Protein backbone atom coordinates (compact mmCIF):
# COMPACT_ATOMS: atom_id res chain seq x y z
CA UNK A 1 0.00 0.00 0.00
CA UNK A 2 1.46 3.37 -1.11
CA UNK A 3 0.83 6.33 1.16
CA UNK A 4 0.95 9.92 -0.10
CA UNK A 5 3.34 12.12 1.85
CA UNK A 6 0.82 14.87 2.54
CA UNK A 7 -1.79 12.44 3.85
CA UNK A 8 0.76 10.69 6.05
CA UNK A 9 2.05 13.92 7.55
CA UNK A 10 -1.47 15.19 8.12
CA UNK A 11 -2.46 11.92 9.81
CA UNK A 12 0.65 11.91 12.01
CA UNK A 13 0.17 15.54 13.04
CA UNK A 14 -3.50 15.00 13.94
CA UNK A 15 -2.68 11.85 15.92
CA UNK A 16 0.03 13.66 17.81
CA UNK A 17 -2.37 16.48 18.65
CA UNK A 18 -4.94 14.02 19.97
CA UNK A 19 -2.34 12.35 22.18
CA UNK A 20 -0.52 15.53 23.27
CA UNK A 21 -2.48 16.17 26.47
CA UNK A 22 0.65 15.25 28.47
CA UNK A 23 2.98 16.96 25.92
CA UNK A 24 4.64 13.63 25.06
CA UNK A 25 4.03 14.21 21.35
CA UNK A 26 5.21 17.65 20.19
CA UNK A 27 4.18 18.88 16.73
CA UNK A 28 6.53 18.11 13.88
CA UNK A 29 9.08 20.87 13.33
CA UNK A 30 9.83 22.16 9.83
CA UNK A 31 13.09 20.17 9.85
CA UNK A 32 11.29 16.99 10.94
CA UNK A 33 8.66 17.45 8.23
CA UNK A 34 11.37 17.90 5.60
CA UNK A 35 13.22 14.79 6.74
CA UNK A 36 9.98 12.81 6.88
CA UNK A 37 9.12 13.89 3.34
CA UNK A 38 12.56 12.82 2.09
CA UNK A 39 12.26 9.46 3.82
CA UNK A 40 8.79 8.77 2.46
CA UNK A 41 9.88 9.74 -1.03
CA UNK A 42 12.56 7.06 -0.75
CA UNK A 43 10.19 4.53 0.90
CA UNK A 44 6.66 5.32 -0.32
CA UNK A 45 5.06 2.08 0.90
CA UNK A 46 5.22 -0.12 3.99
CA UNK A 47 6.27 -3.00 1.73
CA UNK A 48 9.43 -1.09 0.77
CA UNK A 49 10.09 -0.38 4.44
CA UNK A 50 9.69 -4.07 5.32
CA UNK A 51 11.98 -5.19 2.48
CA UNK A 52 14.76 -2.71 3.31
CA UNK A 53 14.79 -2.59 7.12
CA UNK A 54 15.17 -6.30 7.67
CA UNK A 55 17.92 -8.73 8.77
CA UNK A 56 18.79 -9.32 5.13
CA UNK A 57 20.17 -5.77 5.05
CA UNK A 58 22.44 -6.11 8.09
CA UNK A 59 25.59 -6.43 5.96
CA UNK A 60 24.64 -3.25 4.12
CA UNK A 61 24.12 -1.42 7.43
CA UNK A 62 27.51 -2.51 8.75
CA UNK A 63 29.31 -1.47 5.55
CA UNK A 64 27.48 1.86 5.28
CA UNK A 65 27.09 2.96 8.89
CA UNK A 66 27.74 6.65 8.24
CA UNK A 67 25.21 6.81 5.42
CA UNK A 68 22.60 5.10 7.59
CA UNK A 69 23.17 7.59 10.40
CA UNK A 70 23.08 10.58 8.05
CA UNK A 71 20.09 9.68 5.85
CA UNK A 72 16.76 11.30 6.87
CA UNK A 73 14.69 8.76 8.76
CA UNK A 74 11.56 8.34 10.84
CA UNK A 75 11.29 6.86 14.32
CA UNK A 76 9.62 3.58 15.19
CA UNK A 77 6.78 5.51 16.83
CA UNK A 78 5.99 7.19 13.51
CA UNK A 79 5.87 4.07 11.36
CA UNK A 80 2.34 2.84 12.10
CA UNK A 81 0.66 6.22 11.61
CA UNK A 82 2.68 7.38 8.59
CA UNK A 83 1.98 4.14 6.73
CA UNK A 84 -1.47 3.58 8.26
CA UNK A 85 -0.46 0.03 9.24
CA UNK A 86 -1.16 -1.08 12.81
CA UNK A 87 1.70 -3.07 14.33
CA UNK A 88 4.19 -2.35 11.53
CA UNK A 89 6.92 -1.10 13.87
CA UNK A 90 6.51 -4.12 16.13
CA UNK A 91 6.71 -6.46 13.14
CA UNK A 92 9.96 -4.82 11.98
CA UNK A 93 11.60 -5.15 15.39
CA UNK A 94 10.31 -8.69 15.81
CA UNK A 95 11.92 -9.65 12.50
CA UNK A 96 15.27 -8.45 13.80
CA UNK A 97 14.85 -10.30 17.09
CA UNK A 98 14.06 -13.50 15.21
CA UNK A 99 17.13 -12.82 13.06
CA UNK A 100 19.34 -12.62 16.16
CA UNK A 101 17.88 -15.91 17.36
CA UNK A 102 18.68 -17.51 14.01
CA UNK A 103 22.34 -16.59 14.40
CA UNK A 104 22.55 -17.75 18.00
CA UNK A 105 23.54 -21.21 19.20
CA UNK A 106 20.21 -21.72 20.95
CA UNK A 107 18.77 -25.15 20.15
CA UNK A 108 15.15 -24.67 21.15
CA UNK A 109 12.54 -23.06 18.93
CA UNK A 110 11.96 -19.36 19.42
CA UNK A 111 8.86 -18.46 21.41
CA UNK A 112 6.86 -16.34 18.95
CA UNK A 113 4.72 -14.81 21.70
CA UNK A 114 7.81 -13.83 23.71
CA UNK A 115 9.48 -12.36 20.60
CA UNK A 116 6.38 -10.33 19.82
CA UNK A 117 6.14 -9.08 23.40
CA UNK A 118 9.82 -8.12 23.38
CA UNK A 119 9.33 -6.21 20.12
CA UNK A 120 6.36 -4.34 21.61
CA UNK A 121 8.45 -3.47 24.68
CA UNK A 122 11.34 -2.27 22.48
CA UNK A 123 9.02 0.03 20.50
CA UNK A 124 7.34 1.31 23.65
CA UNK A 125 10.66 2.04 25.38
CA UNK A 126 12.75 3.42 22.51
CA UNK A 127 10.31 4.17 19.70
CA UNK A 128 10.21 7.91 20.35
CA UNK A 129 13.83 8.39 19.30
CA UNK A 130 15.00 5.11 17.77
CA UNK A 131 14.83 5.45 13.99
CA UNK A 132 14.47 2.62 11.51
CA UNK A 133 18.16 2.98 10.64
CA UNK A 134 19.02 2.89 14.36
CA UNK A 135 17.02 -0.31 14.64
CA UNK A 136 18.84 -1.95 11.75
CA UNK A 137 22.27 -0.77 12.94
CA UNK A 138 21.64 -1.96 16.49
CA UNK A 139 20.60 -5.47 15.56
CA UNK A 140 23.19 -5.75 12.77
CA UNK A 141 25.96 -5.05 15.29
CA UNK A 142 24.39 -6.61 18.38
CA UNK A 143 26.26 -9.92 18.47
CA UNK A 144 29.65 -8.38 17.71
CA UNK A 145 29.45 -5.07 19.56
CA UNK A 146 26.74 -4.98 22.21
CA UNK A 147 25.85 -8.44 23.56
CA UNK A 148 26.73 -8.81 27.25
CA UNK A 149 24.78 -11.91 28.25
CA UNK A 150 26.49 -15.30 28.36
CA UNK A 151 23.25 -17.00 27.31
CA UNK A 152 22.97 -18.06 23.71
CA UNK A 153 19.86 -15.93 23.27
CA UNK A 154 18.72 -13.39 25.86
CA UNK A 155 15.76 -11.14 25.10
CA UNK A 156 16.36 -9.06 28.23
CA UNK A 157 19.90 -8.33 27.10
CA UNK A 158 18.60 -7.26 23.70
CA UNK A 159 16.22 -4.83 25.36
CA UNK A 160 18.85 -3.42 27.71
CA UNK A 161 21.88 -2.95 25.48
CA UNK A 162 20.25 -0.47 23.10
CA UNK A 163 20.49 2.30 25.70
CA UNK A 164 23.59 0.98 27.49
CA UNK A 165 25.80 0.17 24.52
CA UNK A 166 24.27 1.30 21.23
CA UNK A 167 23.53 4.94 22.06
CA UNK A 168 27.12 5.71 23.22
CA UNK A 169 28.40 3.80 20.15
CA UNK A 170 26.13 5.92 17.96
CA UNK A 171 27.23 9.21 19.51
CA UNK A 172 30.87 8.41 18.77
CA UNK A 173 30.01 8.07 15.08
CA UNK A 174 27.50 10.87 14.66
CA UNK A 175 29.86 13.60 15.84
CA UNK A 176 32.50 12.98 13.13
CA UNK A 177 29.67 12.66 10.58
CA UNK A 178 28.24 16.03 11.64
CA UNK A 179 31.69 17.58 11.28
CA UNK A 180 31.99 16.12 7.79
CA UNK A 181 28.55 17.45 6.83
CA UNK A 182 29.57 20.90 8.05
CA UNK A 183 32.67 20.76 5.86
CA UNK A 184 30.63 19.79 2.78
CA UNK A 185 27.75 22.17 3.47
CA UNK A 186 26.66 23.85 0.25
CA UNK A 187 28.12 21.20 -2.05
CA UNK A 188 25.65 20.11 -4.72
CA UNK A 189 24.69 16.50 -5.35
CA UNK A 190 26.61 16.54 -8.65
CA UNK A 191 29.74 17.82 -6.89
CA UNK A 192 29.40 15.14 -4.22
CA UNK A 193 29.06 12.36 -6.81
CA UNK A 194 32.11 13.76 -8.63
CA UNK A 195 34.09 13.70 -5.38
CA UNK A 196 33.09 10.07 -4.75
CA UNK A 197 34.10 9.10 -8.29
CA UNK A 198 37.46 10.81 -7.76
CA UNK A 199 37.82 8.93 -4.47
CA UNK A 200 37.54 5.65 -6.36
CA UNK A 201 33.99 4.48 -5.60
CA UNK A 202 32.93 1.58 -7.83
CA UNK A 203 29.48 1.20 -9.40
CA UNK A 204 28.67 -1.46 -6.81
CA UNK A 205 29.65 0.95 -4.02
CA UNK A 206 27.19 3.49 -5.37
CA UNK A 207 24.42 0.91 -5.80
CA UNK A 208 24.70 -0.21 -2.20
CA UNK A 209 24.34 3.35 -0.93
CA UNK A 210 21.13 4.87 0.42
CA UNK A 211 21.12 7.69 -2.18
CA UNK A 212 21.12 5.14 -5.01
CA UNK A 213 18.57 2.89 -3.30
CA UNK A 214 16.20 5.85 -2.99
CA UNK A 215 16.64 6.89 -6.62
CA UNK A 216 18.41 10.17 -5.86
CA UNK A 217 21.61 8.96 -7.53
CA UNK A 218 21.08 7.05 -10.80
CA UNK A 219 23.22 4.92 -13.11
CA UNK A 220 23.05 7.65 -15.76
CA UNK A 221 24.35 10.23 -13.27
CA UNK A 222 27.20 7.95 -12.21
CA UNK A 223 28.30 7.19 -15.80
CA UNK A 224 28.03 10.86 -16.86
CA UNK A 225 30.16 11.84 -13.87
CA UNK A 226 32.73 9.15 -14.68
CA UNK A 227 32.96 10.47 -18.25
CA UNK A 228 33.40 14.02 -16.95
CA UNK A 229 36.08 12.90 -14.50
CA UNK A 230 37.94 10.91 -17.16
CA UNK A 231 37.82 13.88 -19.56
CA UNK A 232 39.30 16.12 -16.87
CA UNK A 233 41.96 13.50 -16.05
CA UNK A 234 42.89 13.13 -19.73
CA UNK A 235 43.15 16.91 -20.08
CA UNK A 236 45.42 17.15 -17.07
CA UNK A 237 47.77 14.59 -18.57
CA UNK A 238 48.80 16.97 -21.37
Give the helices and strands, then pairings.
Blueprint: H1 5-18, H2 30-42, H3 46-52, H4 58-63, H5 65-70, H6 76-82, H7 88-103, H8 112-126, H9 132-146, H10 155-183, H11 189-198, H12 203-207, H13 210-213, H14 219-236
Report what the structure shows.
- The chain is mainly alpha-helical and 238 residues long.
- It is built from 14 helices and no strands.
- The protein has helices at residues 5-18, 30-42, 46-52, 58-63, 65-70, 76-82, 88-103, 112-126, 132-146, 155-183, 189-198, 203-207, 210-213, 219-236.
- 26% of the residues are buried.
- The model is unreliable at 16-26 and 181-185 (pLDDT under 50).
Tell me briefly what this model is.
The protein has 238 residues and is mainly alpha-helical.
Oligomer: single chain
For the report, how would you describe the main beta sheet? none
In N-to-C order, the SSE pattern is HHHHHHHHHHHHHH
Q: Give the % helix.
A: 55-70%
Total of DSSP H or I helical runs spanning 4+ residues: 14
* Shape estimate: globular
**Poorly predicted parts:** 16-26, 181-185
pLDDT average, as an integer?
A: 82
Q: How many strands?
A: 0
N- to C-terminal distance: 56 Å
Q: Radius of gyration from the CA trace?
A: 20 Å
> What structural class do you assign from the helix and strand content?
mainly alpha
- Percentage of β-strand residues: under 5%
